[in-house]
Amino acid sequence: MSRNSSSDRFRIDPQKEEALEAFVQTVAVPLRLIDSRGRVLWRSDYFKSRGNFCGVLRARGFPYQACQRAHKEAIRESIRWGEAILTRCCSFVMQITAPVMRKKRSVAALVASPFLLVNPSELEAEEVAALYKGPERSRGSIEKALSGLAVVKDEGLRQFARELFHLANHLSDPDLGHLMQVREAQALQGEIAEQIADLKNLDREFTPDSMSKLFYEREKEIITKIRLGDRGGARKILHQLLAIILVQYLENFELLKISILELLVILSRAAAEAGAKIEEILGMRYRFVTELSSIQSQEDLCLWVVRIFEKLTDRIYETRHHRNYQRLKAALDFIESHYRDRLSVERIAREACLSPSRLSHIVKSELGITLTEYLSRVR
Predict the structure, then answer these.
(1) d(C-alpha 112, C-alpha 166), whole Å
(2) Three-point CA angle 88, 36, 176, nearest 5°
(3) What is the pLDDT of residues 74-107, one digit of tens each?
(4) Which residue, 197, 204, 208, is CA-closest to 245?
(5) Which of 219, 186, 173, 203 is nearest to 9 (CA)?
(6) For the whole model, what pTM was predicted?
(7) What whole-number distance in Å separates Cα of residue 229 and Cα of residue 273?
(8) So what's the pLDDT on residue 177?
């Protein structure tokens, strides 16, 4: 591998160089590490070969400044979205870019390129023809360089991007945790936006009464999901609840905070009833108020709620007996599907392959209420 002199802002030690080399060997795509001014600090051996694609293009007069502009734009987008970004480098040639940061400032970037998304034979004729402008004698060198480019299919792109971002995280100081938070927040906002769109398709007016009724319906559903230990189902309903709250209070941040706090009280109570330790839940509820006061944006507020939800459900899983949970879930699933029927303890126990007394004991120990009380709440 060849290495340029290190910049004042970013230095490459043997461990970093070893990590760069290991990445190239793993993904078989050329890699460069460039500084904030676009200067190459490190490059893989591919760029040392005389027939490499980038070198052939430059020999034909293709301006390197165009590549630098493409790199800089990709780095900006990568920081904006908090992940490695797939973009075009030049023409049909692709690149994946991830920032290297120090104290939340971009000091360098990883650029994995050139590579293709399809085999050279599948490229559009007019795209390839644009490369052949110039002396006819050089056409063969272009075709040879083009045929040597790595091809990364759709199924491998996501993993490729994750690995590049992981490498950038390793090279950064302290890490890219703040960018991961950006990505997490944006993904959550996308989920909530979808839920808001679904609300608009419900064919009901967004009046305070209708929103309160809908919130109450979803509140009962999330409590049931939490008690069942259905984390995925509860998370989806949480996104719906956040959408309902945002529709009502998006323009009044203080009322939005109050509604979020009320939601957290509901979630913490459900977690306690589902088996989480009371003293831990009480400690978390005390922290809700102090943490909430420091949050200044709707995006941060929603992300904070989801993280608390994850902590609450973690507490439930830490205290539940796994075997009891599986049997309990079978019984409660049956109740959810047949709560309008005339249900007896015996019938429910039979569906869960338990004796009536054993089922009653598990429900009481895991949920903190009797089977009859649970059935009444579901109804």
Answers:
(1) 13
(2) 80
(3) 999 999 888 899 998 877 889 999 999 988 888 9
(4) 208
(5) 173
(6) 0.60
(7) 12
(8) 81
Look up tokens 């007996």; give the residue. 321
Could you give the 3-state DSSP secondary structure of residue 368? coil
**Joined tokens for residue 119:** 């085999």
Instruction: Classify residue 36 as exposed, middle or buried by CB count within 10 Å of its CB (0-12, 13-18, 19+).
Output: middle
Any alpha helices (H) in the chain, and if so which ranges? 14-27, 53-59, 64-81, 125-129, 139-147, 154-171, 177-200, 208-228, 231-249, 253-273, 278-293, 298-319, 322-338, 345-351, 356-367, 371-378
Model confidence pLDDT, tens digit, residues 209-264: 888 888 888 888 888 888 776 778 888 999 999 999 998 888 899 999 999 888 88
Angle 370-376-379 (CA atoms, 0-180°, nearest 5)? Answer: 145
Sequential DSSP letters for 36-96: TTS-EEEE-GGGGSTT-HHHHHHHTT--HHHHHHHHHHHHHHHHHHTS-EEEEEETTEEEE
Residue 120 per-residue DSSP state = G
**For residue 32, what pLDDT is reported?**
94
- According to DSSP, residue 149 is labeled S
What is the sign of the dihedral through the CA atoms of 224, 226, 230 and 231? Answer: positive
Buried b (16+ CB within 10 A) or exposed e, 251-276: eeeeebbebbeebbeebbebbbbbbb
Task: Indicate the domain borders of the chain.
Answer: 2-175, 182-319, 333-378
DSSP 131: G
- What is the Cα–Cα distance from 7 to 41, expressed in whole angstroms? 8
CA distance 376 to 369: 11
CATH superfamily of 333-378: Homeodomain-like (1.10.10.60)
Whether 335 and 363 have beta carbons less than 8 Å apart is answered as: no
Q: How far is CA 251 from CA 19, 244, 245, 292, in A?
A: 48, 13, 11, 18
